[in-house]
Design goal:
Blueprint: E1 4-6, E2 17-19, H1 39-73, E3 79-92, E4 97-108, E5 116-118, E6 123-127, E7 131-136, E8 147-149, E9 154-163, H2 172-178
Antiparallel strand pairs: 1-2, 3-4, 4-9, 5-8, 6-7
Length: 179
């Protein structure tokens, strides 16, 4: 048999290798294309990966369902309607303004899952967004039950406010109204 010597070109870490002509049946000198792995190892890897994949899928689906439920079934803000508003006993002078305000409000709950409980309601009447004419910061009153609006229902509230001299620490509002 003839011997063939192969010299590596740029690989200094390799030594010379002898190559022999092989017959079709002699493959003992050839290296396998893949490393041999014992059969039990791949089975163990598959058995370990399967539960991890199932758990990851379950967590992902649960998160997706929760996100969808929040955006479709999440709490919705109530809608407020002013049904009527009246002013009585209105009296003005150059230095004072007095009035009684009667306001009828309706709160509508368009949510199918949540009820609305209001512990307090602030009602303030403004003149040109800068000046407060009348206000009541505890319409429900201390010690009363919360204002409740059930699911998909409406509830009405009547609010009474008074405007008096104590609101006007200066004559800015009256000067603005007289202009």
């Amino acid at each position: 048999m003839e011997e063939h010597h192969v010299l590596p070109v740029s690989y200094h870490h390799r030594s010379q290798t002898k190559v022999y002509p092989l017959s079709n049946s002699d493959t003992s000198q050839l290296h396998p294309s893949r490393p041999r792995v014992p059969c039990g190892t791949t089975r163990l890897a598959k058995l370990t990966a399967l539960p991890i994949l199932i758990i990851a899928t379950a967590i992902s689906l649960t998160a997706l369902v929760c996100i969808l439920m929040y955006f479709t079934l999440g709490p919705k803000l109530p809608v407020l309607f002013i049904n009527s508003m009246s002013v009585s006993n209105l009296s003005t002078t150059n230095t004072s303004l007095r009035a009684n305000w009667d306001i009828n409000l309706t709160f509508k709950n368009s949510d199918r899952l949540w009820e609305i409980y209001l512990d307090y309601v602030d009602c303030i009447i403004f003149y040109q967004e800068d000046f407060s004419l009348a206000g009541n910061h505890s319409v429900l009153g201390a010690g009363t039950q919360p204002f409740k609006v059930k699911m998909m229902e409406e509830n009405t509230m009547n609010v009474k406010l008074e405007t008096g001299d104590s609101v006007f620490s200066s004559n800015k509002v009256l000067n603005k109204i007289n202009r």
